[in-house]
Structures are given as C-alpha cells and as structure tokens.
Amino acid sequence: MIPELFVVHEYLTRVTPLGVRFWDQAARLLVSEGLVVTVYPLGSPRRRTRAIPNRSGVFVAQNLPGLRSIEYGKGDAEFWVGVTPPASPFVIEVVDERGRFQPFQFKVDLPVKGLLSWAPDVADSPPSALPTLPLYSTPARTVPAGMAVLRADLRDWCTNRPAAWAVLEARPEGQPPVRGIAGKDGRITLVFPYPEPHSGPLGSPPGSPPSGERKPFLEQKWAVMLQAWYSASVMVPNRLDLSSVFTQQPATLLATVSPETVLNSATLEFGKDLIVKTETQSELLIQAAV
Asked: Cα–Cα distances in Å, from 161 out to 164, 237, 252, 286?
C-alpha cells in the first residue's frame, strides 16, 4: 500500500478580474513589450494598478480596489452564473512607451470571465479564436519592410481644426479592410500588406487570368477604397476613448472644395507612401455628418 504523503486541508483559488491581449494589425502579431497597461476604478484615476504581461503575452491585473471578495472567489461555473457580486466599472489605459501605437483608454465592467474581447469590426480582429484588443499605428511608427502605408492629415472642413480621433478605413484591392484612428492633431497612418500584383491594367482583379506579360512589381498600382467616421466636438478629450470613437457617424472626405466633390478612393503605388489629401490643399478635408 502506497503511503499518503500529502493531506489536503483546504483549496485556495484566485480569480483574475482582468486578462487582455493586444494585437498589432499591421505586423499581425501579439504585442506585449513596450506597453504600459494600467487599471483604475471609474472616477478614481489615483487608485491605479499596473497590469503585468505573463509568458503568453496576456496582461493580467490583480489586487484591484473593491474586488477583493471576487478575487478570492471559487471561479467555478456557479461563481460566474450568479454568486459574483455586481460588476464594477473600471478604466483601462494603454500607452506604448516606444510610440508605435496610439495611446488610448476604454471603460469596462470587471471582473471579466476569460480574456477581454473587443471587436467593433472584423477589420480589427486577428485570425484567431482567442479575443484581443486592436492597436492603431501612429505616424511615428517604423513601417515593417515590404508593407504599404497610407498617410493623411485630417482637418475639419467646417471648423478648420484637426479632426481628432476620426476613423479612416482603407480597402485595398482583394484585401480585407484596415482601419486607423487619427491622433489629437488629426494625423493618421494605416499600415497594411501590398495587394497581389496585377497581370493587366489598373482595375483588373488581382489573380485574374494574365493578359500579356505581368508588369514589374515596381510599376504596380492598386485602387484603395476609402471610408471615414467622424463627429465634431467642441471639447476634444486628451486621450482616445475606444468606448466612444466607434460610435461616430459616417463622414465625407473631400476630393475638391470648389466645387465640393467626394473622395471615395485613392491609388497606391508600390514603394511609395500613399499620401491622401484634398486637391489644392495640404490636408485631407473631412465633413462631419449633420
């Protein structure tokens, strides 16, 4: 008979109120290095707790104010069904010390079972079953080799102020859409893979049957469809708030101002930054929905 080496007197469980991963849409990679993630109760920014990444790149936060009873709960099925105390509102702030991604914040009720999910659109989601939060490039980030880049300086046509926190979506030929968010200064950068090369003239679908010799890659051009969302505000917050930025209304990008014409697309050339702007202007003018 095998002697009993251990006697279990009690089990101690620990529930983590928050677990979150971050996704770089451009490089299509999970990111943890360089990110500073802090959590605090809504309305109490001085009571901050820093979330720490584990070996899997998941940021976890524990010892959060007001959640002690939750953190020492059982964490079993019954716990999540109804035993848990009412959820508490918190704010999560994310800052990239390397300047690659827009700093942002958002509100969330804690605790969250499993990983925190944020997917306002499939354009922001990785090809993975595990949830993540998207990161949005800044103009200062280094563009990965072999990637295309779109840049614009968005300005409100009515107020002549930077279109802070405007959302711009680009749909390159044959590719899923990619989105970016303008900074407080209105500057925006979208980084994405180049589309498949054309075998014919501009506008023929990528991968279509060849109509002669394929153009050299350095001579390739592609159409990029554009769409924007923007709501003008008298008071512009200092930090991007994901809780509200995707509730903005569709906006109009202007190709010309006299007469006013709509800009729906631009042409991307291989090896060149796609600088999108209104004709005769140094900025890309945008009109908020009335």
From this structure: 8, 14, 16, 10
Q: What are the φ and ψ backbone dihedral angles of 78, each rounded to 5 degrees?
A: -65, -35
Q: Residue 180: what pLDDT? A: 94
pTM: 0.83
Q: Which domains does the chain carry?
A: 18-135 (2.60.40), 147-287 (2.60.40)
CA–CA dist 231, 251 (Å, integer): 8
Q: Of how many residues is the chain composed? A: 290
- Residue of 159, 167, 145 lying closest to 27 (CA atoms): 145
Beta partners for 285?
155
Average pLDDT over residues 92-111: 94
Question: What pLDDT does 113 receive?
Answer: 83
pLDDT digits (tens, 9 = 90+) for 212-244: 566 676 789 999 999 999 998 766 777 888 888
Q: What's the CA gap between 262 and 284, in Å, rounded?
A: 11
Q: Write down the pLDDT at residue 122.
A: 46
Token readout for 233 is 């505000």
CA 199 and chain centroid, separation = 33
